[in-house]
Design brief:
The protein is mostly helical. The chain contains 22 helices and five strands. α17 runs antiparallel to α18.
Amino acid sequence: MSQSPIDALAEQYATRLADFHPVVASELGLIEYADQMPDYSQETADALDAVHADILTRLADLEPENSTDHTTKAALLERLTVDRQLHATGIVELNNIASPVQDIRSTFDLMPTAAVQDWENIAVRLAQVGDSLSSYQHRLAAAAAQGHSPAARQVDACIVQAQAAADGFFTEFVRLAPNVPSSLRTALERGATAAAQAYADFAQYLADDLYGQAHNKDAVGQNYYQLASQQFLGTHIDLAETYQWGLAELDRITAEQAAVAERIQPGASIDKARALLSADPQRQLHGTQALQTWMQELSDSTIEDMKQHFHIPSPMDKVEAMIAPTQDGGIYYTGPSENFTRPGRMWWSVPEGEDTFTTWQQTTTVFHEGVPGHHLQIATTMMNAEHLNTWRRNWLWVSGHGEGWALYAEDLMQELGYLNDPGDYLGMLDAQRMRAARVVFDIGFHCGFLAPQVWGGHVWDVETGYRFLQAHLNETPQVLDFEFTRYLGWPGQAPSYAVGKRIWQTIRAEDEKQPGFDLKTFHTRALEIGSMGLDTLQKALR
């Protein structure tokens, strides 16, 4: 691919990002980073901000040569601007799902383990866990000294997670090493012990030092929320209008669920229909091995079926179903390496003690995480090296674009007839009801909006919010607690799913007005240009 000056600048930026994010770089297949860990210090964060400032300055002097350049420039401008604005707030993320507390430990989930060299890389990274946590600790302390303490609720959650990492994960992990040289075995065991101690020390810092400086206010306010929303959507939304839309969407989905419950058993409530489906032996899976096998088989058959609706060439026609080593209840996707030697994977983090699973609840999850959801989206982008620079293929990810697409994909599967079974359809509606409920709660709580009259009509508080989510999320108590804490500590992210889907559907509706519209062509074109902010996407597709 011949490079324009804008492409060349984006390539330079991708190279710099690899230095700041070595774990991501190694996951993308850059083996020279396979034994490095990130530095989370304030100095490194400032250095990355300086890179962003430099890129924006140089970008301003470059004129696009073609439509690809226009999109790349718009995407760079939008992403780097919001990153700099967030950096300027001085806030350092600490939450129960997407902060270095989790990222440092989960680094080891995706590391290859087949060869001796792989375990040598693991040993070196284990030895650096302490430095990574220490750099993060110093940044948290500096932020707290500047008045940017995290919420006590998030500190509490991270204490539990850090202690859990200290209590056996690393030791158990290195026991997986096959027949490696004794010197390497010693290095692995030493590294595991050091990493566990580093997490124990970090948990102690959180409990003894940071918790005392933490604040009890969970809501971030409209100003910060608007910026966080921009980060996750890549577009500026009217928060009040979106909040009202979320309420209407929640009512619509709940009414549709009531109609489906009537189909499952005349006169049945939604809860009764759920109970009937969960009690059906034909819809039950027992044990994580059965769950993994079912996920894999459904994914494989779906990929074959979807080849008539999407362009799915080899090697992107494979997704691995995995049981995650963690137990927090999350389900997520990780992309393939750039050369696809590591395939895309869907992970299920099964909570401790859970051993029975119901297919009616999770059929739509496989579509969301695999094909036509995240895997199709991400793998299509990575396969398009001929037209997309490295930054756009591997580093540019916007939640509203990606999660919005995955929700759009769930609706699409219903449209294509793959959720005609009323149980599977009720499961999809459960998932969409959850996404609509968190639009309401996340925006309403953080922005200080009034709850509906049925929920008191007052400004949202944590007690009302928890009961509201309990009423609308069909989840176990452990998962509900995790999700509740997530929404409080990661403002703007959870609504990006449903709001992103809303924008994807708006884009398609506009395209359908054009003569000669073809759905497969629309999807192919939309996916091949990769992830970006939703404003940039709308302009690119026009």
